[in-house]
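Milestone 3.1: sequence recovery, worked example.
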């Protein structure tokens, strides 16, 4: 019903209370007034009508029409002030705000506490506001609580590669209508929310919010560097990289807002499509997504040059800690030795691109586009920066199943080729799913598990094993045998043979000796190879999906 048609007997207080959100919340301190609804409600006609209800001797009532125009002035509005005073039933005090020119632009008003009394005044530029002279301590608190209800933040899409970052005060009310705890990772946690449509201009309705500590100077600088890196991939600049929508800092935590993905890759295999039908369309989807993930990872690898390319493993110590983001896939965290140099100036922090934790749970499937999207890129370097501070709660989250052998081999080093190994592991499972569904993925993991190390009470299933007392590593025999099984599968096509050969001969390589060992394929080379194979699928339908098993 338009505001002009609302019956005069229905008070503005009633209508304000009716538009508060979220309606289903019993927590008053979490309720807010949607910004557009509020400003539509407080129009000149409504303001004039409410002022006319005041006693006739009140100057506001005598000059209702003129005052209403001033309240709704576009340059110096008082609409939020008017709404607050109406809601706390102190509208008769409005004249003092007008005389002192306390407008919406002054909100939130600053409090100056009285020593040892638990009471406060409102001040502007250090001077006590006289318009609160008739307010008791109770109404001071009422005004303070209500001003935050009209100030819920509005999140905006990135502009020109710049991602909005809001610094929110402690009392800020977030415009979330539904909140649901998501998985907790090795560093930070995920919250699934629905943001009120009047408080964002994104194209989706459900969001994932990643929360990271941001309490000391080093953490803050690391968060800023992380946001800078993520900003270069914002506004859907790459279809296979998660796009950060906005960021905010609140209650000592740094928050990143992303679109919510319906399932990670493991859930997609297990629940969304456990039994794929082998046909050309399915093969083309795998080819397109595999190429896209490699291209997205290349974008990450090309980012920045601020940190050393190699980090000797001797400078790290392994601590087994469970990452609850996947019960079947715990995380090993790397914590630094005391010998790692801490940057003297946190403002010099720069990230270089390396993912560091590629695994199915860090690849999301979006139903609306059918795309596989790489998430949490850059967080490995974020963790590395924080670990240099020596803080015990920080570290590099590494999935034991998909970690490369250099993490375990004595004297091994960690570089961007680390990601190539992990991606090769995921690709191998993706092919297993394509040929045999989730059941074959499970079978492959079971074959890798015997003899594996126990991490935090759970067996891991890496793709390699150590020998010579940990000085060397080799691809597990069960992995090599499984690749042969896939080659021999009745539906294995020429494209899949080429893909399996690429994984085995260029991705799952042991780089223990920097001089003698074969080097893994670079991300650029990988992207080019997969792009060529994808194009060949279009040019030659038989190449893509005609069965040609190897005996």
């Amino acid at each position: 019903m338009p505001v002009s048609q609302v019956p005069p007997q229905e008070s503005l207080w009633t209508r304000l209370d009716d538009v508060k959100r979220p309606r289903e919340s019993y927590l008053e301190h979490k309720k807010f007034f949607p910004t557009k609804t509020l400003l539509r409600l407080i129009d000149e006609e409504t303001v004039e009508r409410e002022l006319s209800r005041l006693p006739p001797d009140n100057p506001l009532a005598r000059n209702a029409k003129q005052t209403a125009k001033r309240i709704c002035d576009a340059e110096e509005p008082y609409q939020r002030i008017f709404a607050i005073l109406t809601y706390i039933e102190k509208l008769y005090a409005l004249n003092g705000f007008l005389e002192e020119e306390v407008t919406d632009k002054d909100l939130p008003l600053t409090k100056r506490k009285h020593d040892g009394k638990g009471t406060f005044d409102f001040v502007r530029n250090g001077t006590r506001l006289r318009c609160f002279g008739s307010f008791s301590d109770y109404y001071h608190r009422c005004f303070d609580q209500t001003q935050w209800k009209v100030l819920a933040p509005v999140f905006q899409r990135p502009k020109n590669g710049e991602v909005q970052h809001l610094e929110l005060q402690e009392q800020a009310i977030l415009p979330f209508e539904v909140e649901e705890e998501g998985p907790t990772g090795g560093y930070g946690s995920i919250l699934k929310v629905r943001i009120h449509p009047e408080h964002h201009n994104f194209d989706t309705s459900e969001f994932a919010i990643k929360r990271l500590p941001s309490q000391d100077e080093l953490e803050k600088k690391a968060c800023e560097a992380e946001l800078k890196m993520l900003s270069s991939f914002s506004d859907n600049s790459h279809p296979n990289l998660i796009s950060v929508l906005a960021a905010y800092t609140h209650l000592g935590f740094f928050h990143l807002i992303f679109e919510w993905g319906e399932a990670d890759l493991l859930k997609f295999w297990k629940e969304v499509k456990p039994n794929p039908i082998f046909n050309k369309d399915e093969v083309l989807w795998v080819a397109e997504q595999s190429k896209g993930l490699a291209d997205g990872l290349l974008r990450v690898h090309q980012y920045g040059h601020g940190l050393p390319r190699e980090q000797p493993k001797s400078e790290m110590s392994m601590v087994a800690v469970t990452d609850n983001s996947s019960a079947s896939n715990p995380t090993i965290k790397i914590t630094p030795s005391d010998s790692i140099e801490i940057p003297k100036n946190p403002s010099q922090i720069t990230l270089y691109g390396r993912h560091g934790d590629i695994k199915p749970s860090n690849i999301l499937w979006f139903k609306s586009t059918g795309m596989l999207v790489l998430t949490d890129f850059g967080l490995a370097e974020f963790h590395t920066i924080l670990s240099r501070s020596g803080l015990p709660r920080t570290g590099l989250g590494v999935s034991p199943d998909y970690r490369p052998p250099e993490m375990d081999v004595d004297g091994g080093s960690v570089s961007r080729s680390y990601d190539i190994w992990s991606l090769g592991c995921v690709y191998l499972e993706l092919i297993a799913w394509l040929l045999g569904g989730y059941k074959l993925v499970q079978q492959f993991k079971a074959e890798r598990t015997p003899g594996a190390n126990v991490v935090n009470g759970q067996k891991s299933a890496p793709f390699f094993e150590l020998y010579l007392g940990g000085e060397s590593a080799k691809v597990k025999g069960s992995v090599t045998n499984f690749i042969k099984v896939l080659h021999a599968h009745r539906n294995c096509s020429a494209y899949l043979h080429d893909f399996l050969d690429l994984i085995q001969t260029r991705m799952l390589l042991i780089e223990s000796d920097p001089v003698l060992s074969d080097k893994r394929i670079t991300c650029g080379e990988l992207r080019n190879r997969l792009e060529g194979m994808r194009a060949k699928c279009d040019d030659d339908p038989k190449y893509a999906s005609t069965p040609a098993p190897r005996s």
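Residues 1-6, 305-344, 346-351, 386-396 have pLDDT under 50 and may be disordered. Residues 417-448 form the longest helix (32 residues).
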